[in-house]
Sequence to fold (770 residues):
Amino acid sequence: MSVTAPQGFEAAGVAVGLKSTGNPDVAVVVNRGPLKVGAAVFTSNRAKANPIIWSQQVVADRTVEAIVLNSGGANCFTGSFGFQTTHQTAEKAAELLDVSASDILVCSTGLIGTGDEAFRAKVLTGTEQAIAELNADGGAAASEAIMTTDSVSKISTYQRDGWTIGAMAKGAGMLAPGLATMLVVITTDAVLTPVEADEHLRAATRVSFDRLDSDGCMSTNDQVSLLVSGASGVEPEAEAFRLGLIDVCTNLAVQLQADAEGASHDITIQVIHAASEDDAVEVGRSVARNNLFKAAIFGNDPNWGRVLAAIGTTRAEFDPYDVDVEINGVRVCTEGGPDRPREDVDLTPRATNVTIDLRVGEEAATIYTNDLTHDYVHENSAYSS
Amino acid sequence: MSVTAPQGFEAAGVAVGLKSTGNPDVAVVVNRGPLKVGAAVFTSNRAKANPIIWSQQVVADRTVEAIVLNSGGANCFTGSFGFQTTHQTAEKAAELLDVSASDILVCSTGLIGTGDEAFRAKVLTGTEQAIAELNADGGAAASEAIMTTDSVSKISTYQRDGWTIGAMAKGAGMLAPGLATMLVVITTDAVLTPVEADEHLRAATRVSFDRLDSDGCMSTNDQVSLLVSGASGVEPEAEAFRLGLIDVCTNLAVQLQADAEGASHDITIQVIHAASEDDAVEVGRSVARNNLFKAAIFGNDPNWGRVLAAIGTTRAEFDPYDVDVEINGVRVCTEGGPDRPREDVDLTPRATNVTIDLRVGEEAATIYTNDLTHDYVHENSAYSS
Fold:
């Protein structure tokens, strides 16, 4: 059911030839209310695509009527013509929905530098066709239309106490956190104020999408949006709603990790007993971005030396000679020295767990990443994204 | 001639079985004086190998008699036993050379976590054998004994006005700057004070080895040492000596880049018109560490969008929509937008030049890196380094 699982939303996905495959490539999600609350977080990459620059203005007043998304072109570094394309896309949707263009979010994904006149014409056509096909069961079609190199569409729902959260996501490469990462649309029929929606979204993305770092490469088009219809009439208890939203976001983050380009291992890096949560995140990310460690895991090699070498590049509080490392439950390093033999570690499962005990504090964080494989190199060495 | 090109130095390289191949694996370089000046820079990785911890103490008084180097084991994260091994290595060399152990530098390279009793016995035996074979033509043998995954030994010499600089280096992976990177021994018969030696070495490494970033992974064992014999009796003009030292260090850095594990392109990233040299280095390094960009170059794909996406993650002063990018002489991006078609770029040569014009200032820097290839993944996915 994706984004149409909650009451008050309609969606659609259509194919207009932005993708050479002929697969669906334009999606629209509309909030029928009664509330028209919107919140969004964006990539922190300073090189922002035109839809990001536009959407940041749209969400400023926290009122959002609809969101238009396209795959098959990022409309990034396409000049003023590209920005006009985004603006015209919002104007087209606004005219057909009889609302203000300043309440229409726009997202694009695909090759950076793509945004010519043919691209514009197809996006405008797709916007018109998708709006004509809007329906309360369109969530699945919308989630398929935003796929790029994704092998499967990614959706998640959560229900409790009469309110529902629905969500869809796309992303398989360039997966590293900005504020958010990849394209995500989350809908809910819970009754939330604009401030609550914004605070819940930032809190949930901080501990979910922000902790996913598949390949260290931050996108120019990342956006996570939350649309609130309030159609259930239920005002959720704040903590309950936040837990539900975190559940949905973490579920999608793990789906994105599982579908990362070319990956053969999903690596969960748990950093425990850190002096601060920031330290734990910095340490986890330094390991997640170490190509030698990532290649070793691809080779089913529990190379803990590369883990410690990566940690050593951080500013985190720790003593390199008082760190423990466990890989898939086997303590391979104790107090910065060798412990059990590498032969004891079974790295054949796709699910890989690395636990780093810094032994200095009480804080912890989990980073989700992937290994560095031949398929990753292959998929990213052709001009495609 | 390597490190024995200058007057006043003897060297040797021997095989004691630290390498499974049976190739030479222990080297000794001795300074016969008259001066016994030494300087060294070390990895800034906080996870430092035992030889680094030892050598930092040795060089503190800027007096160095000799340096013992081994391949086939990094002696890193091997506990107090490993540190004792380094100490005993220095004691053994000091005893045979009739000098103080506190003037013996030690370097190790190989697998992190390797440093057991068999390793210690072989290193001590190798130290004894190498000292027995010391000779004024031993530079070549020494340079071969420090090779790990290097396919060729790396040496460089520079002569001017009666003084000579000789040098050897090893390194093929884990190539990212700390203060230094990889193992390098530089010798000279020029007359230098300890302060001059230290200042020249730091100045030269800052613009050479520190600008080499092959795979973003910083080693735990990196050390660049300069031994000064003064045997030529010539006091060089300071600027002339520094230029000579920079020439030798840059020459070696480029040799290391050319031999980087699995690489198919040597990528020179020139960042120009930056507001500061630090900005230029940060921008160059962000591109050098972007796996999507590196994989694209492997695929002969001038994917300038990935260049701008990488720049956008830096704190450097620039406007993403006022940046120019040239790849192998073809302007593919002007003012943050598409310029000439990608088909115009020929990426078939191994030598690849990327020029990034930030258009905000007068500073510049050059970063040397490599592409991300199947061979890189292959060589680093087996338990070997």
Confidence is low (pLDDT under 50) at residues 177-181 of chain A. Residues 238-258 of chain A form the longest helix (21 residues).
